């Protein structure tokens, strides 16, 4: 799964035996290096992500890996580094008026975690691809909300409040949906910007590089996860 055209277009081009499926988003079934896959371009934001996760499971997906870009939050991370999520929080969930901590959706756990086996497989694959290229690969908290973060003050708040490594608009929604659907998931985010005042400039300039790296990861995972 990816949110935007640039995050899935190269993977789509490499699919064989492509079948277009009905759903809430662009949804394809095909083969990647001989492995049966479902590919979704979910669209931006939490609701679109949850709808796409449900559609993918209905189409036969037995696990979901989200690849795409995000803003760096943790100190020391830079553009081009990679965060593989090991904890997911919706930073714009605010029920504090009724005593819940910021970021907690009422009736849900305080955070979500990925399937440990799928996480380990994905993390190892990302390290194999990106560390030789000089990019740092870390496991960390990914925070999500229906906001494009482009203010240094907001980045500092996310770091202090959630110990976040990266911020984006979909990962925690996938985590919540996958939890209810009973499907393993993992999220890989290539850092495209620093979430500050330059984010709106850095973000589009980095998409092409991220698209190629996402395709490389998809091919590795297609071979590793072949069933």
Q: How would you sum up this structure, described in words?
A:
This protein is an alpha/beta fold. The chain has a single domain (64-224), classed as Rossmann fold. The protein is 38% helix and 26% strand. It contains six helices and eight strands; from the N terminus they run H-E-E-E-H-E-E-H-E-H-E-H-E-H. The strands form two sheets. Strands 4-7-6-5-8 form a five-stranded mixed β-barrel, surrounded by five helices. Strand 6, helix 4 (152-162) and strand 7 (164-168) form a beta-alpha-beta unit. Helix 1 (5-14) packs parallel to helix 6, helix 2 (46-58) packs parallel to helix 5 (171-181) and helix 3 (116-130) crosses helix 6. The mean pLDDT is 92.
Provide key terms for this protein.
single chain; 227 residues; alpha/beta; Rossmann fold; 5-stranded mixed barrel; 3-stranded antiparallel β-sheet; amino-acid biosynthesis; Nucleoside_phosphorylase_d; hydrolase; Nucleoside_phosphorylase_sf; adenosylhomocysteine nucleosidase
Tell me the layout of helices and strands.
Blueprint: H1 5-14, E1 16-21, E2 26-32, E3 35-41, H2 46-58, E4 64-72, E5 82-90, H3 116-130, E6 137-144, H4 152-162, E7 164-168, H5 171-181, E8 185-193, H6 199-224
Parallel strand pairs: 4-8, 5-6, 6-7
Antiparallel strand pairs: 1-2, 2-3, 4-7, 5-8
Write a brief structural summary.
The chain has 227 residues and is an alpha/beta fold. A hairpin with a 2-residue loop joins strand 2 and strand 3.
CATH topology: Rossmann fold
Give the strand order, joined by hyphens, for the main sheet: 4-7-6-5-8
Averaged pLDDT, please? 92
Number of structural domains: 1
Please identify, by name, the CATH architecture: 3-Layer(aba) Sandwich
Give the name of the CATH superfamily: Nucleoside phosphorylase domain
Radius of gyration: 16 Å
Major sheet attributes: 5 strands, mixed, barrel
Categorize the overall geometry. Answer: globular
Number of strands: 8
Q: Point out poorly predicted stretches.
A: none
Task: Report the total helices.
Answer: 6
What is the chain-wise order of helices and strands? HEEEHEEHEHEHEH
What portion of residues is helical? Answer: 25-40%
Q: Class by helix and strand content?
A: alpha/beta
- Main CATH class: Alpha Beta
Distance from N terminus to C terminus (CA atoms, Å) equals 19 Å
């Amino acid at each position: 799964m990816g949110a935007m055209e640039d995050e899935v277009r190269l993977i789509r081009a490499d699919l064989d035996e492509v079948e277009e499926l009905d759903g809430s988003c662009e949804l394809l079934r095909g083969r990647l290096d001989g492995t049966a896959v479902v590919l979704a371009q979910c669209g931006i934001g939490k609701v679109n992500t949850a709808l796409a996760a449900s559609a993918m499971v209905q189409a036969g997906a037995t696990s979901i890996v989200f690849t795409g870009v995000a803003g760096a939050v943790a100190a020391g991370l830079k553009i081009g580094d990679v965060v593989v999520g090991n904890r997911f929080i919706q930073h714009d969930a605010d029920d504090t008026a009724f005593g819940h901590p910021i970021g907690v959706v009422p009736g849900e756990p305080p955070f979500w975690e990925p399937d440990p086996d799928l996480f380990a497989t994905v993390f190892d694959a990302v390290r194999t691809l990106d560390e030789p290229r000089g990019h740092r690969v870390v496991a960390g908290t990914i925070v999500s909300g229906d906001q494009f973060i482009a203010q240094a003050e907001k980045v500092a708040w996310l770091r202090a409040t959630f110990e976040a490594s990266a911020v984006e608009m979909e990962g925690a929604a996938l985590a919540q949906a996958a939890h209810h659907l009973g499907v393993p998931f993992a999220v890989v985010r290539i850092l495209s910007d620093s979430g500050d005042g330059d984010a709106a400039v850095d973000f589009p300039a980095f998409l092409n590089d991220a698209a190629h790296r996402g395709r490389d990861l998809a091919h590795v995972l297609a071979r590793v996860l072949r069933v």
